[in-house]
Amino acid sequence: MIENVHKLLAEAKAFEISNAEQLEAFRLNFIAKNGQVTALFKEFRNVPADQKKEFGAELNKLKQFAEDRFKATKEALEDAVDENQGGVDLTLPTIPNALGGRHPLTVVREQISDIFARIGFNISEGPEIEDDWHNFTALNFPENHPAREMQDTFFIEKNPDITLRTHTSSVQVRVMENEKPPIRTLSPGRVFRNEAISARAHCIFHQVEGLYIDKNVSFADLKQTLYYFVKELFGEQVKLRFRPSFFPFTEPSAEIDISCLLCKGDGCNVCKKTGWVEIGGAGMVDPNVLKNCGIDPEEYSGFAFGMGIERITMLKYQIKDLRLFTENDVRFLRQFKTIG
Ligand code: DAH
Q: How does DSSP classify residue 167?
């Protein structure tokens, strides 16, 4: 009789418990109402009277051992689970999540698009591989005119001339050919010029072209639109000026300058001590361009402008070297993650 108690105690000691299932098996075996320990308690009445005392004492020891072991092992297993989950202290900061960020040029392109969207400009796109008509001829660049050399073009094919577009002004031609005025559109995109890469120039860069065609559009509308734009993008303190210039596709034409944001107009290296930095060109769309695109210049007029996104981004975030945009150095890129 007593041997059964000892045997079960030995079993309870040897029982392997290293996970939740084994713990439950232990419970069913040694603690549950229909387990083996309870079964022994039921046998108590069959134990001869002179052995009852010892039997009872040993049985109680067994019961106590089973209960203690169950409790201690349960706690140990729960602690281990907590540790495996990396700790359950909900007040601790979360594990950092290395999410990517948008490229600074994308951030600024979207800022520009948003500012113009508020005054009714939509977005239009065109091909990066262009033909001569859309990149030059329709824009009033005469054949063999030196103006074509202002932009060092990458030709893919001569006769017919197929080029990598040198500016996004080609998109204004495509929009005017396909849509009826009023037109208010913004064309951001990549452009290509055969230039040596330096801190200030690259053979691939980004522009945004703006075009507004309607009845009675004037130079005053152009100025007011650009005033609004630069103040929205750079802040109230920025100044804007127009310098007379030449572009084949606009007449009159102007170069757009803003006051230098680094020295606030006092003169520094970035503005070459002038206090002003050029951000793009603009003008009233030349009547020849309107005609080339099937729009009657007697009925409609319009303005256009084109700006470099790299230049604007460099001014806005005080970036001194254009090459940083294409080097993919995460130490540079990471700084723009939270902007925009
Ligand atoms: N396409 C010119 C360039 O790449 C920029 C430009 C100047 C665009 C005047 C315009 C404009 O629309 O009116 O240098």
A: S
The CA–CA distances, whole Å, from 14 to 17, 24, 26, 44, 61 equal: 9, 15, 11, 24, 16
User: What percent of the chain shows pLDDT beyond 70?
Assistant: 97
Alpha helices in 157-275 (DSSP H): 169-178, 219-234
Two structure tokens written together for 217? 């559009």
Q: Looking at the domain covering 104-336, what would its CATH class be?
A: alpha beta
138-148 per-position pLDDT tens digit:
999 988 877 67
Nearest CA to ligand 1 atom 5: 306
For residue 133, the one-letter residue type is: W
Give the strand pairing for 122-123 and 183-192. Answer: parallel
- Tell me 253's DSSP state: E
Quick: pLDDT tens for 109-163.
Answer: 999 999 999 999 999 999 999 999 999 999 999 888 776 777 789 999 888 899 9
Peptide bond into 297 cis (omega under 30): no
What whole-number distance in Å separates Cα of residue 254 and Cα of residue 243? 5
282 CB near ligand 1 (under 6 Å): yes
Q: Would you kindly state where each structural domain of the chain is located, as residue ranges?
A: 2-84, 104-336
Whole-number Å distance, alpha carbon 253 to ligand 1 midpoint, is 9
Residue to mutate (ligand 1; options 305, 310, 311, 312; most atoms within 8 A of CB): 305
Cα distance between residue 191 and residue 187, in whole Å: 11
The whole model's pTM is what?
0.72
Residue 216: closest CA among 304, 301, 305, 120: 301
Ligand 1 midpoint to CA 134 (Å): 14
Please report the sign of the dihedral spanned by the C-alpha atoms of residue 277, residue 280, residue 286, residue 288: positive
Report the separation in Å between the CA atom of 168 and the middle of ligand 1, taken as the mean of its atom positions.
8
